[in-house]
Fold these 2 entries.
Entry 1:
Amino acid sequence: MSKKKDPRVTRIEDLAGPKSPGELEEMKMPYEEYCRQAFDPGNEAKKPESLKGIRWLSCTMYIFTPHSAANLAELGAEVIKIEIPRMGDAMRHTSPFNEAYLYPLHESRPMTGTGLGFTNANINELYLTMDYHIPEMVDVFYGLVKMSDGLTELYRPGTLDKWKMSYKYLQEINPRFIYVWGGGFGYGPKVFGGSYDILGQAHAGLASITGMHEYMGGHATKCTNWVIDWASGTIITYGVLAAIHWRRKTGLGTMLEVSQVQTPTRFMGYSVPLYGRFGIVRQRWGNWDTQLCAHGIILCGKSDYPDADNPQEKFDARYVMVSAFNDPDFQELCSVIGRKDLWDNYPRHKQRLEAEAQIEVYDALEQWAADKTRTEVSDALNNAGILAYNVKNHREVYESEHLRQRGTIRWLDDPLFGDLLTHCTYSTGLMSKSPRRLKWQWRPVGADNVKIYRDMLGIPVSQVEDWYEKAWI
Amino acid sequence: MAQEKRDVEINSIQDSLDMLTPEIRPWPVTPPPSAEEVSTQVYTKRKAEDFLGWVEDNVKFEKSFGKAEALAGLKVLDIGLWRLGHKFAASMLAEAGAEVVCIEPPGGDPLRQLTPFGREEYMLADQETGEKCGIEFIAEMVNQYAITLDVDTEEGQQVFRELAANADVVIEALPPGYADERGIGYRHLKDLNPGLIYAWTGIRGQWGPDKDRLSKHGQWEIEPFACASNAWIHSTGYPQDQLPRGKGGDPTRAGVWIADYVAGEQVAVNIMAALYWREEFSGEGQFIEVTGAEALMDITDFDMTWYGFNKSIKARTGAWDPNLNQYEWNPCKDGYMMIGGQSDRLWYRIGMCIERDYPQFGRLIHEDPYLKEMGARNALHALIKTYTLTTRWLRDINRVQAEEALLEYEIAAGPVLFVDEVCEFPHFKYRPWIYNCESDYGTFLYPTSPNAYQFDTPHRLKWVGRRLGKDNGEIYSKWVGYGPTRLAELKTEGVI
Amino acid sequence: MCDVIWCKKEVDGSPCETVNYLDPFCFWNWEGTINCAECRTVYYIHMIQGHMYKGPEERPGEEPDTSPLYADKPLEGYRNYMFATEGRTRPFECMPRSFLLGEADMVKFSIRGKPVRGWRPQPESAGIAGSFPYHWDIQNLSPDVWEEYQEKIRKGEVSDW
């Protein structure tokens, strides 16, 4: 509530508007310019880091749990990734169609590279190798625990417990410790079931509602990328940050048990409650929307780039997202495509949202688009004031002036691997004062062994070399 | 329990509606296994009963309500329409204990009116007033208070400033510059409340040459616009080589508004990071902007890096992953079966499992010299061969049989489940990943927060959506000290 | 014989012995004619839910509706026909480039012409216990690539985007 004012005094802070020439400038600035200056893409390194001083251990593999720790590293935490000696994370051995690798994977393997499948999941981290099985390593591991704020692991249930590295033991060593066990299923009947992103999509229901309906000829469709792995990893990061907030007040750590397979169910909007109340099982509805019409992706007759060499451009630059669900927009749409009868038949949103009406509406749109290119279609609609947007491919994303200006597509001069195009980190959100940043993509397996074993834990170099020879690290 | 039986003739949905209630068709249909059964039949198999018993004792969902809340005392305002990103972020904060107030215009968020295929019979009625609301809106307003405010009026803007002066966090999801033009944007609020963390979220951005637009008639851009603008749709779906174009072989959107969820969780993460920075170091709030297009682009694996490497444009590959073999789902007798296992150890175990029923698999796959090396197995022709023969095995068995067979070999495998099967899957019921909450709209089946299983501060669901303006009295009184008379005035003026 | 057509057609006195793979999503429910990738014999098949309801029946003289994507010959060391072998296998259009390598692409420069460590072998550069510095000393480690880079700069083949 505003404070009671003394009516006899006029204070500058009570007057509306800016209070100094600097503020005056700021308030006069067009809003876009104001945002651009506030976020100042490209100068993140000059600003402070949000999570300065937090140190995290990432005993992880694949995408789900690594991403949960990488999020912290992007925000300024020091994250130590612990990998299997020589081999490293299994994800290093994945690459699209076996074609894209950066070299070397490890000092001893000049002919083996890290596949691009590893990209973005472990950025800014320090790379340590350690074989947890070796009894001599347990105390070393405890040393790391005492010096860290928390840990994320993904091992099968009880694995780290067997080696006395579970939260049961670590909370005694470091009561402030925050421990994350990120599994596929977590406790319960399927606790030993392994999991992957694609398993989450399948098992949790997302696949059953993605893709073309059977009558359109479609099958249950996988959302591209390992989207559920990544998204579940971010859920962990959030849980960790909330726990850190709580720890600021109480000084106490906690343990989180997070299941990757669960996340997609939480992303399914009305699906579960609709089933619970009415027994209705939501089905696939292809490129259309179950709650809005017209609001869908249509196929146009011609590609924008019929002569391109890349088949993705030649054959697939043919899809447009069209949206006109509000009455005036839909009316306008019908008039642009010369089908005023559709507006006469379906003047209310509820009417055009019925399945049969949707089929008719999108058929009409595709018929109208049959002799046009993708851009002819989107231009015609945009010029009429209707929302339409080309379904873009990666070249178009690369060439997007918008993303370049916002710094969410940029080139990284990686300290060890050179020139890498990057679409991560900055794209998770612009922050005006303590932004995320990308320092390096990844480092070879064990690249920071000396830095951590000697410089941090004080283990003599001769000892480190001995362990290395024995492949303990 | 004895079940009453009766004959019913169903000619239209109307004939079945009154039977589709949880009272007549309960959830779960069969009870989950007991803790005792799980411990003795599952955990002991691998001598994990002690450890998992300890885990269950400490993180079990049923114990979450007696525990502390991590964000207790944090005050959050959420204002926006139509989309789910800001609502998901607000729900995440509220699940961890923050006091989250959702502001709607006096007419309500249009999302309240959305219902699948326009079916009003699937909207739920508030038990006190009978007001109907769409399920998606109710589901995405976890633990939030519902108040109304018209920020298009000058008075409403003043009220908003007073609310924000008292808040730790504002989440805004209005069109670009909308709040700023009304004097309630970040640059106005930061002076009133220097500790304020202000997060804007939208589709492509509030600034830049391709920022969010409205149509000529004022219609908003809604998901999947974000997925269209970052090549995500371009690379989702079946190739035209597997299914004909126009009949399933096209770029495909997600069934849900996925970029909203992905942006929403990063809004929550960035807010928490900004909060840490405020509390630990600076005492200052800051300005955050998260878009669906970019937050989703962040998690498109290596896609853009690959383009920068050798101009590859990621093509869609249907239900097969181009980076790992095996890692896919294929059709089987009663649906689709997902199988994963890439390393030699797992890959050959899958083969051993299939070979038992279909010896030719072992011969054609394991003898083939081109399939011996892990990386080489990811080549497209290797996928075609492996998956054709895997499906030859799957076509004769159903999902449960395949799952049991593969789990015996410790292979990550799972069926593509439909929503009813998800809700009835024993593991999901046991944890439970879905459970019934008693809401203002009656029994409401709900997916649990993945952060609900913790020693000390589990996130939890206390209530779901509320009717429009239900909490005006409580929140305006607590946050800005307005009594009933003042609220009545504001109501008359159309401000709330 | 289902999901694969193991062609036993007599060709020059011996059976063809080619395995033609019928990829599952395309052929799960499908009816029509398809050729053997090796001997080009045309078969009629009718697939329902992955089962071959009818066929394969030879249809001499007919043009095939489609071809397999991949075929191989187990008795000849798995000699194979890749997709898009003209007249034998079906093209596969939905690819990231107009061609696929199926093996690691040796890349020294990014698409804007700056060096990237995408080739092997890399000269040794690690320190104790597999440690690496935070700096790619390309001038000393790979002087030939550095020289090539200088040449690219001179030719204007390096750009900001």
Entry 2:
Amino acid sequence: MATRQTASLARLMRAPAIILLLIWMVVPLGMTLYYSFLNYNLLNPAVTSWAGWFNYQYFYTDPAFLDSLWNTLVLVVGVLLITVCGGIAIAILIDKPIFGQGLVRILVISPFFVMPPVAALIWKNMIMHPSYGVFADIAKFFGTSPVDWFAQYPLFSIIIIVAWQWLPFATLILLTSLQSLDGEQMEAAEMDGAPAYSRFIHLVLPHMARAITVVILIQTIFLLSIYAEILVTTNGGPGTASTNLTYLIYRAARLNFDIGGAAAGGVIAVVLANIVAIFLMRAVGKNLD
Amino acid sequence: MARAVTRNTRIGWTIVAWAVALVIFFPILYTIITSFKSEQEAIAGFDLIPSLTLESYQTVQTQNNYFRPFMNSVILAVGSTLLALIVAIPAAWAMAFSPTRHTKNILMWMLSTKMMPAVAVLVPIYLIFLRFGLMDTRIGLTVLLMLINLPIVVWMLYTYFREIPGEILEAARMDGASLRDEILYILTPMAVPGIASTMLLNVILAWNEAFWTIQLTTTSAAPLSAFIASFSSPQGLFWAKLSAASTMAIAPILILGWFSQKQLVRGLTFGAVK
Amino acid sequence: MGRITLEGVTKRFGDVEVIPPLNLDIEDGEFVVFVGPSGCGKSTLLRLIAGLEDVSAGRILIDGTDATEASPAKRGLAMVFQSYALYPHMSVRKNIAFPLKMAGMDKAEQDRRIAAAANALNLTDYLDRRPGQLSGGQRQRVAIGRAIVREPSAFLFDEPLSNLDAALRVGMRLEISELHTRLRTTMIYVTHDQVEAMTLADKIVVLHAGRIEQVGSPLDLYMRPRNVFVAGFIGSPKMNLFTGEAAAEYGARTIGVRPEHIAISTEGGTWKGRVGVSEHLGSDSFFYVEDTGLAETVTVRADGEIGLHHGDEVWLTPSEDKVHKFDDGGDLIE
């Protein structure tokens, strides 16, 4: 549609964004890759040397690494299960003809705008604290002894917090998708005598399939990088019970000053994220005409 | 689906929906309530009626100088968003109105940079910040947050610009408008709602960013996210004070967020769900 | 002045040649219609003249000066778009004023011209509304208003009526026709609707696959189509086109006879058949006659009062001097 004049101008206008992002991607990733093959510790930077695959081997044989991979998986899958199932249920609920729909919506999406450290602190101190939290108050009310959530169920507690933060996102996306469902189609199905559950299985779910996929993929990208919630609540412990890959790498880099090791972990994290990203890009790409 | 429902069904669903909504909102509500309690009240057990004291808010300001992290948050969120817009508006304009064979690939590639896990580049960014004296500076963090959100900004603007019909810009060209006139009188006024939405979402995202802000600041450039995270250390545990700090940290963005529901869906799904 | 000359104008998108080298002369004050099926390149041709697309080869002359490389703004042409392309954030007044403002015209002159245009187009009461508050017909008028105020050397219309409903379309067609009579400015009008072409044009350019099939006055094209494509495209209902034995009798590959040039009778004639569908419009009746031994159904126009119905047996006779004969390549045999 464009003429030559506008085309060359367009090239000039695209350039800054592309160059910036190119630098942002290539330079740090290149450095990470390079460091991952070095023996490099900030406590002793003088003895930096070529390490070959040592950092990867070290990471791979470290029991904390396998723990962290497992914890990452449990965290991601657990949060996804809660948010997707809960999100579908709440989206359908809000879509019903209820009084004060707008206000209900606002209340439900609010947790998404709470910054991660605040969310974690609220849950840690106001809700789950073994002596002063609301859960403890409820336990005392029923005469049972309160649970020390972060000591006894550290990973589960973090899953609850993160799920609370992401439930609004899933709900909002699924609600948007639900509202684009063709009302006449539903009415036709009702005329044909399809009961509510079969309308849900055969019409609503397939319609939302795309939105569900997008929710799963986008959340996975963010959930792989959960950090502040762990830092503020359990610090990864007890032991490695609530350490995910992100937190493990953070510890290697910032607490052990092991640059080489952390870089190797970073490369592994990129590979993991890319596996998810490929699927996400396909889902998004289909939507570009 | 506008269908006739009986009043009773409607009341029934309303009660269920409000119950669910209140449970989800409860932690926020309870924090706000606690922020108006005294410290003694705050640990005295479950109670939804505070004595409405502002004591905790005063403490947070006097003891911790709350104003500084708050201003840092404002500067980082607004600054990084404005920087991103300056770079992204021309790029999105070019891709929307003068697409080439590669436009789709460029957009997808930009998206892919957003998927790079932050922790993967923690080491190099940390070293670069150390090396160039950017640690705990607003400028370093502003640029970093700009880079992190740039793909989303370009994408959102692109989808908004695409909704402006090309014929209108051609009409302006036929009417004798130069490129400058075209951007000034036609494109900008039509794009303002989209640009505003994009700004809104990105201020929210930057405000809530809690990985890099914690990694790369200590005190002087620390925004609210890093400031609040420091409350996790055991010596600072005062319930009412924590609640007051938390309330102040989330209140502005919570209110902005309520206005941004639509943009949130578009911005965070990259247009994959409409 | 508005004399536009195309010399060997060519347009390629990548490897695809959408418009092969094309020559055309448009005289000052002429109303020229580009007509053809969708995808024939008529809109592209208009956009090349407007300067919204670059030509791949050839020259475009406006009033004798080479405008091939000139930007749209510099060509002194005005365009009315299919979607009207009104500026949604401006009032009607500002929309119409925009080209004047771009030309740097002083405020008093702007107001005078806007008032005159609004008056001529019945828009005076709507000047302070936004386009979103107007009906389709009113938006169309605003688009025309925006085009006429700057007194261009030629108007370009890109299917301007296709978004209007049938009744409005007839009204707007008359208005555009009156506008041309009043202004006497060159107009180039693109449409796929041959009725619009026939009613509006001084000169019709029939395009097919980027090529000019025929240029001529409406009646010229109707009476003397140069090939099968034009014969089939111009006229409603369509001209009857027969191949095979019936055509061979005339020494042609294809013959064409317009519905009004076939006599229908219950007594006798050349082809015997049976009435299929019949349409009685009052002034005319159309019969679609089947089982004639010809491969094609024959359309016949007859008097409105003729009393024939479905299933009736009839005889058809073409008027010999009105039969168009076409050769193997589809061209007219003179």
